[in-house]
Design a protein that fits this description.
globular; Rossmann fold
């Protein structure tokens, strides 16, 4: 299909938040197919296993028929090539995010000039939100239901009760 627009949205999603879901919902309106890629970062220690993050993301995004969720242990541009995507979506909450994301986008473009990065802003009510903050709140038994999909809030409660 000549006009098929395929994008990927990589991240650690540990766990997926409503900010992530917001960006993915926006992107789902712009692209025929989106692959949400649970990127495995060897430098990060995750609260949720790869399998748990996959399940939580799939459950949180099941209302979007053109969104698929998978995991990857390779470079983002290599995954993009594998699924014939020419767009990488990145969410930007603040200027501090931009500097890091800009460097990654330029490196990806150097590796694969035909894969472009676009930055999407989440709804302003999610600009302060990130997975680390959510995990910290959940650790101290704070209600995180405004920040994450219901299934994620339930799993966070279970994790911290153990």
């Amino acid at each position: 299909m000549e006009n098929t627009r395929i994008a990927i949205y990589p991240g650690s999603f540990d766990p997926i938040t409503n900010g992530h879901v917001d960006v993915i919902e926006r992107a789902a309106q712009m692209f025929n197919q989106i692959y949400v890629v649970i990127a495995i970062n060897s430098k990060k220690v995750s609260l949720f296993s790869e399998e748990e993050r996959l399940l939580l993301a799939k459950e949180s995004l099941k209302h979007l028929p053109n969104v698929a969720v998978s995991a990857s242990h390779k470079l983002t541009v290599d995954f993009a090539r594998e699924v014939s995507a020419n767009i990488i979506i990145r969410g930007i909450r603040a200027i501090s995010d931009f500097e890091y994301e800009f460097q990654i986008a330029l490196m990806n473009r150097k590796i694969e000039p035909d894969v472009h990065t676009i930055f999407l802003l989440p709804n302003e009510k999610y600009t302060y939100l990130n997975s680390s903050i959510v995990k910290e709140l959940a650790k101290y038994n704070e209600d995180v239901s405004d920040f994450v999909p219901k299934v994620v809030a339930e799993e966070l409660k279970k994790k911290y009760r153990q």
